[in-house]
Amino acid sequence: MKVFALENKNLILIVDEDSIGQRLDKWLVGKIENSSRSKIQANLKKGLVSIDQKIMKANYILKLSDEVHVEILEESPAGPQPEDIPLEIIFEDDFILVINKPAGMMVHENNHNEKGTLVNALLFYACSLATAAEKERPGIVHRLDKNTSGIMLVAKTDEAYFKLVDDFKNRKIEKEYRALVVGKVSQKNGEIDANIVRVGAQSKMKVIDFGGKESFTRYEVAEEFKEVSYMKVYPKTGRTHQIRVHMNSIGNPILCDDLYGHDFKEYCVPSKNNAENIKKRVLLKRHALHAYAIKFDHPINGEKMDFVADLALDFKSVLMSLREGEKRIK
Asked: Measured between alpha carbons, how far is 220 from 199 in angstroms, rounded to an integer?
């Protein structure tokens, strides 16, 4: 067999008489250093192996003088890597961190291996993080959606991690959110007791009468405007998209929530700089939900802890606009 190494780390392998009739994947395992059948099959599925410019399958049977082109991919380091991303630290000691997560930041990597996550930032900032969780989620004891801003609690030690996870499970940790919802809420104070279930294989959730996971949300109207209501929301359970699903279920979806029944994706007001030819001034491009406060017992010394995360600037801008009486442009 002849092997030619190319500058871009691709290989060209020529099939000799001894290799005729072998399966392509098994043959490659024996020819490429530090490879395994699973790695080879993964590369085949990605279309990284070809013969005569045709993408090949794992079960291809080799023929004499086949010219096999293999693209060698450098393996990325296992697990998330530190990234120098600024964090707003609300509180820190040897056991926990309390941070104010910006909208647009994922908490941890997803299937698309996205970088720029909270975990990447934490790995750069913190000297230690709890390792008891999955390797993709060091220190993470609860989550916020990518476009939800606000307060998050992080464990720096395994002891703190297990205690906080247990407290979340037993509903000992109190959370308060602030939300802007579409329309006027019929009940100014209320509780939504409605089970939630995932819709197929999608990330979308829905309320269901039977089955699903029990979900409880308490709310109160803080301020009311012509088209929008400013809410204080207290989830008793922590289901995926719980507040967004529950508010939509009573006919008041979160403002600018493009997943749960909202008609427009941006909140805009007239630009004050051009009165004749009105231009849109976009204030909000994500759902108006902010994790505002958290109360819990310190996982190590039991001290009562109570923290608040200031409203994100985009959320605050919309609220100020509503209070000033500006009209939304659809």
From this structure: 28
Q: H helices within 32-184, ranges in order?
A: 37-45, 118-125, 158-169
Taking CA atoms, 43 is separated from 6, 62, 71, in Å, by 18, 17, 8
- Catalytic residue from among 145, 167, 297, 310: 145
Q: Kind of pairing, strands 149-155 and 289-297?
A: parallel
Q: Which tokens go with 113?
A: 């291996």
Task: Give yes or no: 145 in active site.
Answer: yes
Which residue has tokens 């006027």?
184
What is the topology classification, in CATH, of domain 171-330? Pseudouridine synthase (3.30.2350)
Is the CATH number 3.30.565.10 carried by domain 2-71? no
Q: Which part of the chain has CATH 3.30.2350.10?
A: 76-170, 171-330
Q: pLDDT, tens digit, for every residue of 263-306?
A: 656 676 555 554 444 456 778 889 999 999 999 999 999 999 99
| Second-level CATH architecture of 76-170 | 2-Layer Sandwich (3.30)
